Amino acid sequence: MTLSNTSSLPTTPEERLFQPVRLGRYTLPYRIVMAPLTRSRAHQPGNTPSHLNALYYAQRASAALIVSEATQVSMQGQGYAWTPGIHSREQIDGWRNVTNTVHEAGGLIFMQLWHVGRISHPALQPDNMLPVAPSAIKPSGEAFIENKNGKGEMVPFVTPRALQIEEIPYIVRQYVRGAKNALISGFDGVEIHSANGYLLDQFINSHTNRRNDEYGGSVENRARLLLEIVDAAIEIWGADRVGVRLSPLGTFNDISDDNPEATFGYIAEKLNDYPLAYLHVINPAAAALESGATPDPAALRMLKLIREKFHGTLILAGGFDRETAEAWLQQDKADLIAFGRKFLANPDLPERFRTRAHLNAADQTTFYGGSAEGYTDYTSLAQEL
Ligand code: 8OZ
Predict the structure, then answer these.
(1) Is 59's C-beta closer than 6 angstroms to any atom of ligand 1?
(2) How many CB atoms lie within 10 A of CB 230?
(3) What's the pLDDT score for residue 385?
(4) Which of 19, 47, 258, 283 is deepest in the core (most CB within 10 A)?
(5) From ligand 1's centre to the CA of 251, what distance in Å?
(6) Angle at 12 between CA 279 and CA 15, to 5 degrees
(7) What percent of the chain has pLDDT over 90?
(8) Nearest residue by C-alpha to atom 3 in ligand 1
(9) Does the Cβ of 80 fall within 6 Å of ligand 1?
(10) Helical packing angle, 89-104 and 51-59, nearest 10°
C-alpha cells in the first residue's frame, strides 16, 4: 500500500493515528493495524482458506496492515479445530485467493506463522501423537477439538512430549516451509508468532522450558529457537518483510517467567540485530487500559523497557480504543496500534475512527467456528446508510 491510497481517507494533521509510518519495505498511510484473530473457519477437510475467508479479509482491507489469523506451519503445529494451515497445496491455493482479493481491495497483508507446541491435543495431531514442547509439562486448561459429531468441544490438555535436540532443526524447517509457502501465496510479509504461550513462547519462558541443553537455561538459550526462525524467515523474505510478535508478562496458556524484564529486555534488544519490519507486542496493560483501571506498574515498566531496548517500528495491541490509541501514539509509546475485536466487528474501522462514527459491538458467541454469521455480516458505514 502506498500513500496514494489515502485519497478516500483525508487526514487531520494533528492526529497521529492518521499520519503515515514506515514499516520495513512499506510506507503505510496511517497507523491502524488489524490484529491477528483466530476465527476457526477454515474449509474442511484440510483446514483450507475459503472464499468466505477471502471476503472477510477483503472487507477489512482498509487496515494499514492486516496480520492474518495465526496459521499453523505444519499439522504438528495445530492446536485448535478448524484453524487454517500453510503446509499443503490446497492451503496455498486458498491463501493465494485471499491475498489476491485483499490486494484488489487495496490492502496489505502479512501471514502470522504459528506452531502451538503443547497447546494442542492428540485429536489434532498427525496419527494422534502427543503434542511437542520444550519440556514435558502439562498446561492447565483445555484444548478446543472437533468431536465425533463434528462439533467443537473442550477437552483437558495432555502432557506433551519434550522435543529431542535432534528434532529442533525439523521445527525450524517447518517454519521455513511455512515462510516459503506464504511467499508463493502472495503475502506481503510474515509475522512470527512468538506470543501467547505457543511453542516459541514456551521456549522463551522459564516455567515451560526446563531444558538443560543449548535451548534452555539462560535467556540466550531460551531465545535461541526464536532467533533461528527469525534468521530463516529473513533469508526467504528479507528482514524488511518480517515481523515478530511477543507477549511479555502474558499469562494466557499457562505461561510465566521467573524474570520477565531480563527475558524480554534481552529479546527486544537482540531483535535490533535484524532490521525487522516491526516488533508487535501484546500490551501487558491491556485489561487495565480497557477498563480504565490503574495499570500494574510492572506492565508499564515492561512497555517502557521494550520501547527503550527495541529501536525499530513497534506495534502495540490490546485494549485500545480510538482515544487511547491516539494518546499512546502521541506519547510515543508505539508507532502503530493493532485492533482485534474492534476490527472484527467493524470492517471499515479506520473510516469509523476518522469520522468518529459509532462502532458495532463484537458478538463473542460467534468468535470461533461457524460460517458467515458474526464473520462477514458486520456492516460498514456505507451499508448502514
Ligand atoms: C484465541 C483463541 C485461539 C487462538 C493467540 C492464536 O492467542 C491465538 C488464539 C487466541 O495468539
Answers:
(1) no
(2) 23
(3) 79
(4) 283
(5) 13
(6) 40
(7) 96
(8) 38
(9) yes
(10) 30
Q: CA-based angle 334:314:39, to the nearest 5?
A: 105
Among 181, 230, 180, 186, smallest CA distance to 204 is for: 230
Residues in the chain: 385
Helix (H, G, I), strand (E, B) or coil at 291: helix
- pTM of the entire predicted model: 0.96
Give the burial class of 128: count Cβ atoms within 10 A of its Cβ; 0-12 exposed, 13-18 middle, 19 or more buried.
exposed
Q: What is the tens place of the pLDDT at every residue in 78-99? A: 999 999 999 999 999 999 999 9
**Residue 34 in grid coordinates:** 488489524
Specify burial of residue 71 (Cβ count, 10 A radius: 0-12, 13-18, 19+).
buried
**Per residue in 270-307, pLDDT tens?**
999 999 999 999 999 999 999 999 999 999 999 999 99
Q: How far is the CA of 37 from the centre of ligand 1 (A)?
A: 7
The pLDDT value recorded for residue 14 is: 81
Residues 198, 266, 278, 378: which is the catalytic one? 198
38 lines ligand 1 (CB under 6 A): yes
Assess whether 198 carries a catalytic annotation.
yes
| Residue closest by Cα to atom 1 of ligand 1 | 38
Report CA(197)–ligand 1 centroid distance (Å): 9
Q: Cα of 178 to ligand 1 centre, how many Å? A: 18
* Domains delineated in the chain: 16-384 (3.20.20.70)
Atom of ligand 1 minimally distant from the CA of 70: 6
Measured CA distances, 43 to 50, 81, 98, 147, 164 (Å): 6, 11, 13, 17, 33
As given in the structure block, the three cell numbers for residue 88 are 499443503
Distance from C-alpha of 102 to C-alpha of 201, rounded to nearest angstrom: 30
CA-to-CA distance for 285 and 293, rounded, in angstroms?
10
Q: Is 196 in the pocket of ligand 1 (CB under 6 A)?
A: yes
pLDDT tens digits for range 161-204: 999 999 999 999 999 999 999 999 999 999 999 999 999 999 99
- Residue 139 has, within 13 A of its CA and on its CB side, a CA count of 32
| Residues forming a β-bridge with 71 | 113
